Each structure stands twice: as C-alpha cells, then as structure tokens.
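Review session, final week

We close the course with one last complete record, chosen because it touches almost every idea we covered. It is DUF2200 domain-containing protein, a protein from Carboxylicivirga sediminis with 122 residues. Go through it on your own first, then we will talk.
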Amino acid sequence: MNTSSKQDERIARMTFASVYPHYLAKIEKKGRTEAELHQVIEWLTGFDAPKLQQLIEDKVTFESFFREAIINKNVHLITGVICGYRVEEITNPLTQQVRYLDKLVDELAKGKKMEKILRSSL
C-alpha cells in the first residue's frame, strides 16, 4: 500500500525519543513492562537497552534510528493492520519499519505471548 510522500517524510523526521514515552505508556497501562518493550525493540532492531538509551538521549530521527538498526531476518513474519495500513503492503521501507515497530508494541499491549510477538514459535 502506498502512503503519501508527505507522511513518509514526517515519519522520517520524527524522533524516536518523542514516540518512546507513548510506547511505554501504552504497554504499561496494559500491565506489560519496560523490559518487555526493550525485548521487542531489540528483537526488531538489535539495539540493547544502553544503545536505546543513547538513541533516546541523542534524539535521533526514525530515519537515523532504522539506518543504524540490524533488522531481524524474520521481520517478514510481521503482518496485519496498524494505523489503517497493512504492514506487509507498505512500499516505503522506512515507513514499513516504523509500522513494524508500532505493530509489535500493539501486540505487546494487547497481551500476546512474547513467543508469538517475537515470531519464535512460528
């Protein structure tokens, strides 16, 4: 699915630090932990907790965040709808990666088992 170039540009310029507190609040409200959030982010990007903290402090954009990431080889197993878009059909690679992260956070907040979120039992 095509997203508008304006939306893609807006996502690229958005900082990870501006969105992270929203991810955290969303999952904590549903009884999940920051450690679980970090586990999900590390699975997707390869970033451990100290690296995540550095990226937050440096206020990196999503463009820089995902440029540094080592995307999990099983990312293609993330499917479904997030923010009105089917993630597997998003054509802009950066927007797709951000939506993958959104999808994983959403699954965590919905109480899915970690094995399912991390696609380890598939």
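Two points worth writing down before the exam:
The chain has one domain: 5-116.
The CA atoms of residues 9 and 95 lie 9 Å apart.
Good luck, everyone.
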